[in-house]
Amino acid sequence: MDDNFKESISAFIDDEHDIPEQDLQQLQSDSEARALWQRYHLIRDVMTQHYVSRSNTLAQRISASIANENVISISEKRVRRGRRVWQQVAGFAMAATIAAVAIIVVQQQNTLQPTPQRVTVAPITTAPVRLTSAVENKLSGYLVNHNEYSATVRMQGMLPYTRIVSVTPSQRVVEKINTNAQR
Amino acid sequence: MRSAKFFYTVLFCTPFLAFADAVDYQKVESWLHKMHHAAHMSNYVGTFVYQQDKQLSAMKIIHAANELGERERLVSLDNSGREIIRKENRVICILPDSKSVVVEKGRPDAKFPPAFPMSLEHLQHQYSFVLEKIEQVAGQRAQKIVIKPNDNLRYGHRLWVDADSGLLLKSHLIDDKGRLVEQFMFTQIKFLNEVPDEMLEPQEIGKEFVWYEAAREEAEKNQAANNSATDDKAVSRWKVRRLPAGFSEDMQRQHQMPDSKSSIEHLVFSDGLASVSVFIEKHQNKPDNLVGGSRLGAINAYGRQLDKYHVTVVGEVPQITVKRICESVVAK
Predict the structure, then answer these.
(1) Residue ranges with strand state E in B67-139
(2) How far does the CA of residue A155 sit from the closest CA of chain B (Å)?
């Protein structure tokens, strides 16, 4: 598998340009290519703290250093990556300029609160957490119902359902938002 | 001097700009009609890549339509077995991760073929429409259309519509900062005269899978109560005080979720392109309600408690919009 293929996959992930058709064909037919795709997934997940790990990885140290900032939210800071970062992929080494992207937060919501809770990044000793699966499952159920009635579905057919089935629930990034930062 | 020159330049150009807009508007409308028709009436098999934030997936889609209706099947290509099938007015979600199958009823008043859901005349107050160039997508010539919102309360769209069939081949969802929220792109597409039935059947579902389906009688009873707009029982007890510009109520219904005994109210609001659902449920003794904001790619959700009820708003709109709608739900 050549470097051009790897570059085109990573550039697609970085929204720089679309994957050329022949690379997409390769992705579908070549198990090694698919394995690479999965590795990029994992790497990206670790870089953006979507990967729940018990060890004190570099990702967690970076997130801990950002913990003192106000966690926003919807305004995702663009992750700055260049070719250099992707080439360091094997060692999971990351550029220090990585900014926080969606932080998965979970607080076990045993008590219902009327106001949105302030979101903070987990401290270094705690792995990041998610919305509970009960809340996520309920939201998925709502989404299925919403899809049946939404205008977009009627325009685009099944494609909105890809939001539900495209990833496993454990990989799904459901981000808790600090809405106090919203106008 | 310079400002005068600028002024006259603008004045001179304005009629042409207006004319260009009028031409684009009609052409865009024609393309969107074509796209809508193709989405529901084509027979095809394809694979596409889907990106939501930084997560990428590959999916397979099979779609068949005849005079009786349409059937669709969407399969995740990561060997997880996740798929969704729509047929005979049901949506069947097969989720091997949780060893469950969830069955929901489709929209009961759905006509086939479905009516074009948008009024461009109405939409142009909230969005601008531009036809851009023809580009290649999945080996096909595709017309690019850009739909830009006039405010930050809704997303923008870039659409690439197959010049021949009208099928949507690629789509970007853009936030108010011009960032890509979600995209999908066909990598392979094959149009067929007829789709073999077996292609639309789900893979075998294990005996250990749990099926969740709302009791049919309950669902039908609720729907009958909801059918007449003038029937007092069907009118919702709730309203949204502060709807974003351009949004109006599309429909309302009572619904029983498949895994719950309680009935929920479901209201749908739309600006013609984007839709938002409001779900209102009496509190159960379960910690499964969303409190505050949440986002899954293009979908934003916001939940809050309202007296003995819980209100959850879900839609493919920015967080600010679901929050605003949720916070302004009141009892009538």
Answers:
(1) 69-76, 83-87, 90-95, 100-105, 127-137
(2) 5
Torsion of CA A30, A35, A39, A40, to 10 degrees: 20
Cβ atoms A151, B273 nearer than 8 A: yes
Contact with chain B for residue A137, Cβ under 8 A: yes
- The b/e string for A45-77 (b: 16+ C-beta within 10 A; e otherwise) is bbbbbbbeeeeebebbebbbebeeeebbbbebe
Residue whose token pair is 């949105």: A116
Judge if the upstream peptide bond of residue B113 is cis by omega within 30 degrees of 0.
yes
B162 lies within 8 A of chain A by CB: no
Nearest to B294 among A113, A139, A162 (CB): A139
SS3 content of chain A, % helix, strand, coil (to 5): 50, 0, 50
- DSSP category for residue B317: S
- ipTM for the predicted complex: 0.80
Query: Which of A154, A178, A182 should one mutate to test binding to chain B, selecting the residue with the greatest count of B CBs within 10 A?
Result: A154
CA distances in angstroms from B297 to A76, B151, B316, B319, listed in the order given: 12, 20, 9, 11
User: How many Å separate Cα B257 from the centre of its chain?
Assistant: 19
Collapsing DSSP to helix, strand or coil, A176 comes out as strand
Enumerate the β-bridge partners of residue B210: B100
Q: Which of A78, A133, A61 is nearest to A104 (CA)?
A: A133
pLDDT in tens, B12-24: 655 544 444 555 7
Per-residue pLDDT reduced to its tens digit, B28-77 = 889 989 998 898 899 999 998 988 877 788 889 999 998 878 899 999 88
Contact between chains at B57 and A162 (C-beta distance less than 8 A): yes
